[in-house]
Amino acid sequence: MYAWLNGPGAVFRNPLPGSTNYLGAYDKFGRLQRAQQPADGESSDGGSKMATASASTTEEGQAGTSPIAPSSSSTLSSSSSSSSSSSPSSPSSSASADSAELPPEDARDLRPFPLNAMFRSQSVLDEDLRQEIYRRVKEQGKSVKVVSAELGVEMRRVGAVVRLKAVEEKWIQEGRKLATPYARAILSMLPRTPYQARYPVPHEPINDLPTHPATGTQIFWPTSESRVFTRTDAGRVFDPTLPLLPADERIPHPELIELERERAEGVPRDERIARARKRGEAEARDKLRRDERRKAREEREMLRVLPAEQGGKGGRWEWRVRRVNVEDVGADGRDPNGTGWRYGVPHEDRKRGQVKIPTSV
Question: What pTM does this model have?
Fold first, then answer.
């Protein structure tokens, strides 16, 4: 262990700024693989150089592609050799110069476990990107769906960022201490998705189609050759009682299909973005009107009984009476729109004698 700490592991005493510093980024001699040059103070015998070259070549063969072009590596080696032969300098200045000349991180730098070459460390949201998400939702009043499409972040992650940022602001107002230095240190050791105002960098796929349980079975459905069998027809076959929506409508962002269709038709990029924004704003207005109508209907159907000791003006409590229909629970008594779904019908796992462990695999 001490041989490794004093040998290849010595590079981790002073982590490279702006890098993940994972074990997979260095070879067995403690040299950064993407730099493709020997570390400072390494012996210049031919055997060591040949071993280093063979080790780096084997590692690149396992990765599949070489992230650094020959021209860039030759330029890097020539610049480093010219700088080293020009004039002696201090170790700190040479280290800073080497870090400034290093190429960006590649796939080898994202492997925290050297023996698991298939695992890649995923990027996290940069602090600027989190702040921009919170600003667009809270200050500009944009919906989570619009912000997700604009910045390339999944809607659930956008909602989580907004909630956590709201908690953070609340803690700041209450005077609580935040672990900002710790968070900044952890964030510096992970790959990050930066925020770019004009051309945002997509963080993750935002239009993945969730798998419905009804589509898990394989069905052979006979149909006429002259009939056009669409995705809507396939949804009726999978679930006749509640027809499934086609994939174009079940994805989180169906508006992106129209955007791609306009791109295929040759519509300019600025015009496509303007049209998408207008459609998003119209959809947001329609959703707001639907929510207002739903709240107004619930208020009309609800009877509020205020306490008499407060003069009928209300106090800390009140009774809210709402009319219900027992038929709303449906034939099986478990319709989500019915009252019996929440009251009076327990779940199966709460009943006596129910087997709660798997009986088969």
Answer: 0.62
